[in-house]
Design goal:
The complex is a heterodimer.
Chain A (H helix, E strand, L loop, with lengths): L1 H24 L7 H12 L2 H9 L7 H32 L4
Chain B lengths: L1 H21 L6 H23 L6 H24 L5 H26 L7 H28 L9 H22 L7 H20 L7 H23 L2 H25 L3 H6 L21 H10 L2 E6 L1 H5 L3 H13 L3 E6 L9 H8 L7 E3 H6 L6 E5 L8 H4 L19 E5 L19 E5 L2 H14 L1
Parallel strand pairs in B: 1-2, 1-4, 2-3, 4-5, 5-6
The chains are: A mainly alpha, B alpha/beta.
Chain lengths: ~100, ~450
């Protein structure tokens, strides 16, 4: 029950996000499905935010967690940067050529 | 200060939503990508500002910035180098990194937290994030290897069976653990779960066939999104929740769309099974007509309206550029050329469109299946390149056929169909294609790229 009390706002938020997400994404035409997927993939890299929060909390002599955190931050950044760059590259090909 | 950060997070969340909204048209999609990327940078900077205090050791900061710098540069390099045919592999790889990040996050939390003071709900969320992240990590890596042709399908009973056992274990074990039946620390338990989930990720993707990859990639993408949302829940961070859920929704939508386009249920795709043809559908002898390259070129030269139906074979033969040349040549002769693209053409949703866009085909020529079907009777010649099951009329008029019910491109309703094939081999579904026996259909044997190049050369002379 504690859990519900603490998180009721987030629960509402999740439900709204599901519906808005489906509504917005179902409007994307089939020709853009690959860029949509790689763009969405980049957005899921927002997990980096969590990695940064944890990373800044780790004590300086906790080598295990520093290593894990370093790798986590690296992977998250790679997801974001690669995802957005590659989506940009694909979308450039779709823009009308002069 | 707190309010500014919250507003910043709100802007970042909206930018994700706006970015996805802008994706609904090829004209605005580029801007959308930029907006979402800027929102992401904003979210990361804000997190840093809000979490950093004077007591954070320098070591942590140095490691973090190094990791961010290397990650950014590597992402840029990888995305600059990738071939468009290799796009599904790269997307899988990036998906794996997201899943890996989620998994490591769960492990770090487990290392640091005190189970006595953490409420049960948060422990369950951590477990959920860890497990989904780990599945996405190894599943995406196997998917990437399979797409690259390095790992073959393993459809043995053992693989499927062990995958199911692992799935049940991962659902049951946390329940048993929370009733104190397993005498290990929460941290150790998390490591056990992570290992199980990673093994499951491998076994889960192994039996799935190569042509079903669009479904798998979409599904794994959605799993990473859900892992992100779980983590966001633990930190009460709305940007993470929103980002994760949007990705989860996009992935699920595309997964279902792909399944529908193949007329197979998600469960069947995941088990790697096919509908068997009922009462051993009789395969009739087909009388096929062969056509030569010069005859093809000739009939294209008389056509007013031509449709090209590209399939995965086109991508395998790397023939998209020659295909673009053929289109330009025909357009110079005042012939209208459209591409009709089946939803599952290529190795990930929408892949064929990207390949054609790379070959400088304007997106106004790329027609979706329904639009192409409506105007099918107007096409003088339809070229089917490297596609098979998606043009099989049996899907519409033979209830005994395994492909029956699958939406197809009705090329048989056009005036003339020319199918470019390597051999008389069957398609992915392993069924005879009724189209080949029809009067208005002829077959041009040979490698798609070589034949197309020859057609282009001959057309130049006509």
């Amino acid at each position: 029950m504690d859990f519900i009390n603490q998180h009721i706002q987030e629960i509402y938020f999740v439900i709204f996000c599901v519906f808005i997400g489906i509504e917005v994404i179902s409007n994307v035409p089939a020709i853009l499905h690959t860029p949509l997927m790689s763009g969405a993939n980049a957005i899921s890299g927002v997990i980096l935010v969590g990695a940064i929060i944890v990373m800044l909390r780790v004590p300086a002599d906790d080598y295990l967690n520093l290593t894990l955190g370093g790798i986590a931050v690296f992977l998250g950044t790679l997801n974001i940067s690669g995802g957005f760059f590659v989506t940009g590259r694909m979308l450039k090909m779709f823009s009308p050529k002069k | 200060m707190y309010a500014i950060i919250e507003v910043g997070y709100l802007i970042a969340t909206l930018s994700f939503l706006g970015g996805l909204k802008f994706m609904s048209s090829p004209k605005t999609a580029k801007t959308g990508n930029l907006i979402a990327a800027m929102g992401m940078v904003l979210a990361v900077v804000l997190t840093f500002i809000s979490a950093v205090t004077a007591t954070v050791p320098y070591v942590n900061l140095i490691i973090m910035f190094l990791a961010i710098a290397i990650g950014t540069l590597m992402g840029k390099r990888l995305s600059d180098r990738v071939e468009m045919t290799g796009m599904p592999q790269l997307v899988s790889l990036f998906n794996a990194t997201g899943g890996g990040c989620a998994m490591l996050l769960g492990l770090m939390e487990a290392n640091q937290m005190d189970p006595a003071t953490t409420i049960l709900g948060n422990q369950i969320l951590l477990i959920a994030g860890l497990v989904t992240g780990a599945i996405a990590l190894t599943g995406s890596i196997i998917a990437e290897r399979k797409l690259a042709g390095k790992v073959k399908d393993r459809r043995s009973k053992t693989v499927i069976f062990s995958a199911r056992i692992l799935l049940v274990l991962m659902v049951l074990l946390p329940g048993i653990y929370f009733f104190d039946f397993i005498p290990i620390s929460f941290t150790a338990f998390m490591y056990v779960l992570a290992t199980l989930a990673m093994v499951y990720g491998v076994l889960f993707v192994l039996p799935i066939g190569g042509a079903d990859m669009p479904v798998v990639i979409s599904l794994l993408n959605s799993i990473t999104g859900i892992a992100t949302a779980f983590a966001g829940f633990v930190y009460g961070n709305k940007v993470m929740i929103a980002g994760g859920i949007f990705v989860g929704a996009a992935g699920i939508l595309l997964t279902l769309l792909m399944c529908k386009a193949m007329n197979r249920s998600l469960l069947k795709v995941l088990a790697g099974t096919f509908k068997k043809s009922k009462n051993g559908a009789v395969e009739e002898e087909q009388e096929i007509k062969e056509i030569s390259i010069s005859e093809t070129a000739l009939s294209l030269s008389f056509a007013q309206k031509v449709a090209i139906v590209p399939g995965y074979g086109l991508a395998v033969a790397q023939a998209q550029h020659v295909c673009g040349q053929l289109q330009q040549l025909l357009e110079k002769r005042n012939c209208e050329v459209d591409y009709i693209i089946h939803p599952v053409a290529g190795r990930m949703p929408g892949h064929m469109n990207v390949l054609l866009a790379e070959a400088n085909v304007d997106y106004s020529h790329l027609k979706e299946m329904d639009e192409g079907n409506e105007n099918m009777a107007q096409y003088d010649t339809v070229l089917v390149i490297g596609a098979n099951d998606v043009v099989n009329p049996a899907a519409e008029n033979n209830p005994d056929s395994p492909v029956y019910g699958m939406p197809i491109i009705r090329t048989h309703e056009s005036k003339q169909v020319i199918v470019m094939k390597r051999s008389m081999g069957k398609g992915y579904a392993g069924v005879q294609n009724d189209l080949f026996g029809l009067d208005n259909c002829s077959i041009l044997f040979g490698d798609a790229k070589v034949s197309l190049q020859e057609i282009v050369n001959q057309l130049k002379l006509i």
